[in-house]
Amino acid sequence: MLFVTKRLSFCAAHRLFNPGLNDEENAKLFGKCSFPGGHGHNYTLEVTVCGDVDKETGMIIDVKVLKGIIECEVVSKLDHKNLNTDVAFLKDTIPSVENIVMKIWDILNEKIDKGRLYEVKLFETKDNAAIYRIDQKKT
Ligand code: NI
């Protein structure tokens, strides 16, 4: 299989907090990630599309087009935002890296119309990432 990957970065703030738990339970579950003032991350997003090469262009998808979709649909909505309060698609969602990457998958999967979305990988730190990948059983 053939893949193309675009990487983009953004900065955002969040606090891991479950409104169904009290402060003590949140502190026990999430530790310093639940401090009331929140904290920031420099996120790195990697989006991978698979498919065949278009004979006319030599590409699966034009990475400029892919970059535009990711910037418009995802990065512009997350960059320099508070993920607990400022992002419509994360409303009522604990803004963990796992939950964020699943939401990004759903958004991009609707918008990418050349090739197929294969994988979305979101790094929250240089050492921590969550990956959402196509279900190969359904392809
Ligand atoms: Ni965090």
Distance between the termini: 13 Å
The helical percent reads 25-40%
The general outline is: elongated
The name of the CATH topology is Tetrahydropterin Synthase, Chain A
Q: Give helix and strand order, one letter per element, not per position.
A: EHEHEHEE
What characterizes the major β-sheet? 5 strands, mixed
Based on the coordinates given, report the CATH architecture. Answer: 2-Layer Sandwich
Structural class: alpha+beta
Assess the beta-strand content as a share of residues: 25-35%
Question: Total strand count, please?
Answer: 5
Provide the fold topology.
Blueprint: E1 3-14, H1 23-30, E2 39-50, H2 63-78, E3 81-82, H3 97-111, E4 116-123, E5 129-133
Parallel strand pairs: 1-3
Antiparallel strand pairs: 1-2, 2-4, 4-5
Helix pairs in contact: 2-3
The chain binds nickel (II) ion.
Structural summary, described in words:
This protein is of the alpha+beta class and 139 residues long. It has a single domain (2-138), classed as 2-Layer Sandwich (Tetrahydropterin Synthase, Chain A), CATH 3.30.479. It is built from 3 helices and 5 strands, in the order E-H-E-H-E-H-E-E. The chain has a 5-stranded mixed beta sheet with strand order 3-1-2-4-5. The two termini are 13 Å apart. Nickel (II) ion binds next to strand 2. The site of nickel (II) ion has 4 residues, from strand 2.
Brief write-up:
The protein has 139 residues and is of the alpha+beta class.
Question: What characteristics describe this protein?
Answer:
139 residues; alpha+beta; Tetrahydropterin Synthase, Chain A; five-stranded mixed sheet; 3 helices; 28% strand; elongated; binds nickel (II) ion
